Structures are given as structure tokens and as C-alpha cells.
């Protein structure tokens, strides 16, 4: 679950991390009042959307007067901000964050994330931060510092000190960076985060550190432990179909392709997406049906694929085992087809418990379907179906 910058900064402030004072506003009047209350001579006005690249897209503005704060807020609020991460439709700006500007001497990059290759929380850091960090990482990958954290020991101060030295920080700045890293790791583990990114981490003219921008994502699977964090979810920032899937306990993420995918098990879903790509296909979604899914939940999930206008063919890749049987999936698929209608080619690969019954149910109810014996055949069939539809 992504949260807004202002929410992330509020959380990090509770752990003693150095973030500038700021206030969120939903109107131009409130933004001007926030600047007046914060004081100072310069402010930054930031569009609050779940997307990177805001600065290059005009969503972050440095201003020199309270009148300018109002003008920029008025221009941003109600607009759609198009960045490199939003797609052409952009994101609606409903809030801006106003904070005091800092005298920035140089910018660094710092992030904590889950490194699944080693199964640990890891730190990534770079002397180069700011809007061009992706280009810097691509052109000079050796300059990106990486360090995995032993979960039994946590982030030790000696390890934090080595990272601070790698960022070119010494003396009082090194000590401040060690404290910052220690607090950041505590915030990461306490909130069950999956990412905390500070970019830039600024060294100010007076020799202090400031977290000028923060991106933070929380592990959805751990939110049952954090009802106070669940309340931070901004449903306006989430695809409506993903919200609908969540209500029916389906793990669903909409992608940019044209092949609808329904699979049971996250690992099988990832493998299915990969094999589709290998065969030249483009998945339109990631849909993981839970092992205890009901017929109604499957019908809802399949209905989402049928009503997605980008979907030109559907692949159902099911392994019946344990609680979820292949016939339960077939009944849910058939129910959705009766209610909505099947207007695109359907390929089904069913293996395991009651796989023959799955075939009988779909054929018996008159569902036009192509059956595949294995994943490679299923991927080839559905990709070929998309090409036929496009011809």
C-alpha cells in the first residue's frame, strides 16, 4: 500500500528523522495559510499523488512569496499531473503539501527495501540524488552502495557508519547519518514497510541533513497488525478494479497488456506472466485467486477480466490442490460468462484435483474454450488467439 509523501513524513518524524516542517492543504486558501503559519521566506509546494517524477512534470515548485504559494496551489489543485509513472491519463491532484524550503548544498539518495534475492531488508544509497537518480544508477551502477541487514542483529551502528562514509559524510554529518539510518530501519520494521525511499536526502548549507522527499510503501499482508496505517489508504489513488478485487479477497493488479490472466497462487501467477512474455504476449493483469476462494469470488474476478476493454483474450491457469478444486474454478468462470457474456477467446489449463470435471462443466455449459495440457501450450494458444483477433 502506497501512502502520500506528507503521511510518510509524519510517520518518520515520529522516529526522530529530520524532515522539514510542512502542512497539507486541499484549497489554495489553506496552502497560503500554511505558508504563513510555517514562516520563512521560501516554500516548496508539492502535488500529492502516488507517482514519481513529480518535479520534472511541474508538480513540485519552489516559490518566494505567499502569493506564489497560493497561485501554484490553485494551478495544481484539480489538475491532472502527468509524470513518467502515471501514463498519459495522469493523476488527479486533490492535495498539495507546503513546506519550508531548505538551503541545499548537495543531494544524496537513501532507501530501505526488501531484497528478495537474499531474503533481507537492504539499504541502497548513493552520493548522487535528486531527479536524475535513475540515469545516474544506469550509467554508474558501481556507485550505488548496497548493504543487507542481518535480521538477528538489526542495523548496527558500525554498518550505518560505513554507509555514511560511503556517502562522503564525516564528522557531525556522519553521526547524524548514523542516527538517521538507525531511525529509518526502526520505522521500516515497526510499520512492516516494503519500501522507504528518501530522494533527495539533502546536506544543507548549515551542515545538517534533511529528508526532502519521501516515498513509502507498506506491506498489504501485514496491515491487519496496523489498523492505524490501513486508515492512511487513499482509495482515490487506487484503480477501482483493484479495490473491488480487494473486497472479494483477490490479489489483483492491472497491467498494460491485452491478455487477461487468472491463476491460483502467487508463484504460479508470476510464472504465467513470465511464460506469456516469453511467447510474445502482454499480460493485462496479475490475478492470484486464494486457495480458499469461493465460486462467487472466482466469478467476480473473472468478470473483471471480461469487463476490461483492453483484454483481447483470457488465460485461466489453475492447479487444483488442497481446498481449491478445478471444478470450483470452472463453476465461477461459467457463472461470469452467463452473466456478462464471453466476447473474447478463452484458454484454460487445468491440472490437479477434478481437472476432468472442470472440462466437463465448461463444455457442458456451452462455454467456447480451448484447453491446454501445459503452461507452454496455454501461453502459445492465448498469444495466437490475440493475433487472430487483431488480424
Task: List the topology elements.
Blueprint: E1 2-3, H1 5-13, E2 22-25, H2 28-38, E3 43-47, E4 60-63, H3 66-76, E5 80-81, E6 91-92, E7 96-100, E8 104-115, E9 120-126, H4 133-139, E10 145-148, H5 157-166, H6 172-190, E11 193-204, E12 209-211, E13 214-218, H7 227-230, H8 240-247, E14 251-254, E15 259-263, H9 266-278, E16 285-288, H10 295-306, E17 313-320, H11 326-340, E18 346-352, H12 355-364, E19 370-371, H13 375-390
Parallel strand pairs: 15-17, 17-18, 18-19
Antiparallel strand pairs: 1-13, 2-7, 3-4, 3-7, 5-6, 8-9, 8-11, 9-10, 11-12, 11-13, 14-16
Helix pairs in contact: 2-3, 5-6, 10-11, 11-12
Summarize the structure.
This protein is α+β, with helices and mostly antiparallel strands and 391 residues long. Helix content is 37%, strand content 25%. The protein has helices spanning 5-13, 28-38, 66-76, 133-139, 157-166, 172-190, 227-230, 240-247, 266-278, 295-306, 326-340, 355-364, 375-390; strands spanning 2-3, 22-25, 43-47, 60-63, 80-81, 91-92, 96-100, 104-115, 120-126, 145-148, 193-204, 209-211, 214-218, 251-254, 259-263, 285-288, 313-320, 346-352, 370-371.
What does this structure look like?
With 391 residues, this protein is of the alpha+beta class. It has 3 domains: 1-19 and 103-238, ATP-grasp fold, B domain (D-amino Acid Aminotransferase, Chain A, domain 1, 2-Layer Sandwich); 21-101, Dna Ligase, domain 1; 239-390, Succinyl-CoA synthetase domains (Rossmann fold). The protein is 37% helix and 25% strand. It contains 13 helices and 19 strands. The protein has helices at residues 5-13, 28-38, 66-76, 133-139, 157-166, 172-190, 227-230, 240-247, 266-278, 295-306, 326-340, 355-364, 375-390, and strands at residues 2-3, 22-25, 43-47, 60-63, 80-81, 91-92, 96-100, 104-115, 120-126, 145-148, 193-204, 209-211, 214-218, 251-254, 259-263, 285-288, 313-320, 346-352, 370-371. Helix 10 packs across helix 11 (326-340) and helix 11 (326-340) runs parallel beside helix 12 (355-364). The protein is elongated.
Amino acid at each position: 500500500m502506497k501512502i502520500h509523501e506528507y503521511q510518510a513524513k509524519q510517520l518518520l518524524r515520529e522516529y526522530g528523522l529530520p524532515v522539514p516542517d510542512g502542512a497539507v492543504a486541499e484549497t489554495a486558501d489553506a496552502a497560503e495559510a500554511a505558508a504563513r503559519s510555517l514562516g520563512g521566506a521560501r516554500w516548496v509546494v508539492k502535488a500529492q499523488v502516488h507517482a514519481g517524477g513529480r518535479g520534472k512534470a511541474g508538480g513540485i515548485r519552489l516559490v518566494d512569496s505567499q502569493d506564489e504559494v497560493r497561485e501554484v496551489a490553485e494551478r495544481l489543485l484539480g489538475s491532472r499531473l502527468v509524470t513518467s509513472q502515471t501514463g498519459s491519463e495522469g493523476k488527479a491532484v486533490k492535495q498539495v503539501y507546503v513546506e519550508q524550503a531548505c538551503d541545499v548544498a548537495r543531494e544524496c539518495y537513501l532507501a530501505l527495501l526488501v531484497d528478495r534475492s537474499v531474503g533481507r531488508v537492504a539499504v541502497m544509497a548513493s552520493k548522487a540524488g535528486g531527479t536524475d537518480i535513475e540515469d545516474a544508477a544506469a550509467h554508474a551502477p558501481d556507485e550505488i552502495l548496497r548493504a543487507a541487514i542481518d535480521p538477528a542483529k538489526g542495523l548496527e551502528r558500525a554498518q550505518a557508519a560505513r554507509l555514511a562514509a560511503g556517502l562522503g559524510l564525516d564528522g557531525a554529518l556522519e553521526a547524524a547519518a548514523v542516527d538517521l539510518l538507525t531511525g529509518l530501519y526502526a520505522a521500516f520494521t515497526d510499520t512492516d514497510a516494503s519500501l522507504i525511499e528518501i530522494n533527495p536526502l539533502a546536506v544543507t548549507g548549515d551542515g545538517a541533513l534533511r529528508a526532502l522527499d519521501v516515498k513509502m510503501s507498506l506491506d498489504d499482508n501485514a496491515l491487519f497488525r496496523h489498523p492505524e496505517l490501513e486508515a492512511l489508504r487513499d482509495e482515490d489513488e487506487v484503480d477501482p478494479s483493484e479495490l473491488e478485487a480487494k473486497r472479494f479477497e483477490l490479489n489483483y493488479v492491472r497491467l498494460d497488456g491485452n491478455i487477461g490472466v487468472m491463476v491460483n497462487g502467487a508463484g504460479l501467477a508470476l510464472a504465467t506472466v513470465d511464460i506469456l512474455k516469453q511467447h510474445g504476449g502482454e499480460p493485462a493483469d496479475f490475478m492470484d485467486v486464494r486457495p480458499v476462494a469461493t465460486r462467487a469470488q472466482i466469478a467476480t474476478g473473472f468478470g473483471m477480466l471480461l469487463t476490461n476493454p483492453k483484454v483481447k483474450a483470457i488465460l485461466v491457469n489453475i492447479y487444483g490442490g488442497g481446498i481449491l478444486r478445478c471444478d470450483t474454478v470452472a463453476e465461477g468462470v461459467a457463472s461470469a460468462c452467463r452473466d456478462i457474456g464471453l466476447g473474447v477467446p478463452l484458454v484454460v489449463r487445468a491440472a490437479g484435483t477434478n481437472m476432468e470435471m472442470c472440462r466437463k462443466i465448461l463444455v457442458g455449459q456451452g462455454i467456447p474454450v480451448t484447453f491446454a495440457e501445459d503452461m507452454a501450450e496455454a501461453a502459445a494458444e492465448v498469444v495466437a488467439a490475440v493475433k487472430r483477433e487483431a488480424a
